[in-house]
Design a protein that fits this description.
Layout lengths: L11 E4 L10 E6 L3 E4 L7 H10 L7 E3 L5 H4 L2 H7 L4 E5 L3 H5 L2 H11 L3 H5 L10 E4 L4 E3 L4 E6 L8 E5 L4 E5 L23 H14 L3 E4 L3 E2 L9 H25 L3 H17 L4 H8 L4 H16 L5
Parallel strand pairs: 3-4, 4-5, 5-6, 10-11
Antiparallel strand pairs: 1-2, 2-3, 7-8, 8-9, 9-10, 11-12
Helix pairs in contact: 7-8, 8-9, 9-11
Bound molecules: zinc ion.
Length: 314
């Protein structure tokens, strides 16, 4: 738990300690008259979230709000909803069915994570459908004296929202801006299968930039304007676009040599390490590589390129 200084002074970050790693995956407490938890981390680390809430003096939560349904963001939603039977769970309309019946979500994650599933994610509890509030673009969660507004931001996933806190101007970006760890200070894209779409992702980052938020809070990890290389929201957005575009060049260059995902991944790893090692120490490179795997990013990116290049059937 860390108190945050500055304008968004009353937003509290809980470190979910996902995989036992510190400051990689966050959940955020936003308090009006009612209390919202933005993001939940996976079920495997729900005890850390419960301790973080207790430490902050939060006895009950009214809203569990997730930017999207990937397990590092929403995996504990069902578990927390059981803990607080009055709480509502807010999610993008396309994500909602997967929270009520997580079987497809689980199977899709298994294709990426294989045998590591249980240890990484710890299972997933469904959210009863009558507990879900489906959000569409622009819709608002009223916390009493404070609101969270859903901002449609597809790209990382089709069903992705950022959430804008009207009271502090803080924008919870989920994975729309990729990953930026405060102790590393460099952006890394997050382009997983099956839904990643480059044009949508860049469009969403531009949309976030145009919102002119006071601060942007990445789930991985925290506000961009703190840490070793602080970035304003506009800088963080520009950097995210640059970093996505560079990966896109690498993936396309790798694809010119081979269509094999392993070969393209090796190509991207070489290019990326070369670029990272010019500005980061080995510890920082390792930290960044804890966040999103090369093979996952490359397979999501290749899938997006294939989809964009497939002949239209309509
Ligand atoms: Zn995600």
């Amino acid at each position: 738990m860390q108190s945050e200084s500055g304008k968004a002074t009353d937003i509290l970050t809980i470190d979910t300690g996902m995989r036992g790693d510190q400051a990689i995956t966050g959940a955020f407490i936003v308090r009006g008259e009612k209390t919202a938890l933005v993001e939940t981390g996976p079920k495997a680390t729900v005890d850390n979230v419960l301790s973080g809430l207790a430490e902050a003096g939060v006895e009950s939560i009214d809203w569990i709000v997730v930017t999207h349904i990937h397990l590092d963001h929403a995996g504990a939603a069902g578990t927390l909803a059981r803990r607080w039977p009055e709480a509502r769970v807010a999610v993008h309309e396309l994500g909602a069915p997967h929270l009520t019946d997580p079987s497809k979500l689980w199977a899709s994650a298994r294709r990426i994570y294989g045998d590591a599933m249980e240890e990484l994610w710890g299972g997933i509890d469904p959210v009863p459908s009558d507990r879900i509030t489906v959000l569409s673009d622009g819709e608002v969660i009223a916390l009493g004296g404070r609101t969270l507004r859903a901002v449609e931001t597809p790209g990382h996933a089709r069903h992705h929202h950022a959430l804008l806190d009207d009271s502090t101007g803080a924008l919870f970006a989920g994975d729309a801006l990729g990953v930026r760890l405060p102790d590393v200070g460099i952006n890394r894209p997050a382009t997983p299968p099956p839904e990643f779409d480059l044009d949508q992702a860049i469009g969403s980052i531009k949309r976030i930039r145009d919102l002119d938020a006071e601060s942007v809070w990445l789930t991985h990890f925290g506000p961009s304007d703190r840490g070793v290389n602080p970035a304003t929201p506009a800088e963080a957005c520009d950097e995210a676009i640059e970093s996505l575009s560079r990966w896109d060049e690498w993936v396309r260059a790798g694809l010119k040599q081979s269509r094999e995902p392993e070969a393209v991944t090796r190509f991207v790893v070489e290019r990326s390490r070369e670029a990272l090692e010019s500005s980061l120490g080995p510890r920082e490179v390792d930290r960044l590589e804890l966040t999103t795997s090369y093979s996952m990013n490359v397979s999501g990116h290749m899938r997006a390129i294939d989809r964009a290049e497939a002949p239209s059937t309509s």
